[in-house]
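Data card: per-record layout.
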Amino acid sequence: HVQLVESGGGLAQSGRSLRLSCAASGFTFSSYAMSWVRQATGKEVEWVAGISRGGETTYYADSVKGRFTISRDNARNTLYLQLNALRTEDTAMYYCARVVDDYRGQGTQVTVS
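The structure for this 113-residue chain is written out next.
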């Protein structure tokens, strides 16, 4: 069955970095454009970044452009999000998702103090 399992979240100080991973299984990962979205407590879901099937093209929300980097390793069926220069407003649950149907994993919490 389809699974997306996020990891790498945690507590970080403002200005520091984290790297999130999303392990995919149960489908042909390389055939799907992928994205990261986040949801802070009490707020709506916010799209963060997207990447094409082969990884050649990436997209970013203005709020993270220049600080976050999305990437993928199709050989390892894994999606990544490098979070640099973290800010308190980046605190949220982060989810990886398939673009075509918005299928998401269970999320990983990022808290910036």
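Known properties of this structure: The mean pLDDT is 97. The two ends are 37 Å apart (CA to CA).

See the next section for split statistics.
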